[in-house]
Predict the 3D structure of the following.
Amino acid sequence: MRASGKRVTVVGRVVRVRSRYDGGWRVRLADTGGALGAAEIRPSNLLPPPRRGTRILVRGHICYDPTHGWYAIDPVDAWFDAAGHTDTEDSR
């Protein structure tokens, strides 16, 4: 993946959460209103993974993944429950 350095906030529905070999999480998103397909929670960021079916706001750096043909937020800085806007990180 190639990072563009642009920070974004996107709303999407979690359709799958998988653990990564390095200890992080890959979150597959739908209903983002565009070509964003995934969000990568790195192991250095101690965020819990969101539950499948949850509508979330995801904040982080956007990059294009040519292997999958979608954009991804990598790394995720924070995610919030879109229904309650529950912050999952301490204010940084």
Summary: DSSP finds no helices and six strands in the chain. The two ends are 26 Å apart (CA to CA). The first strand starts at residue 2 and ends at 19. Strands lie at 2-19, 25-30, 36-41, 55-65, 70-81, 86-87.
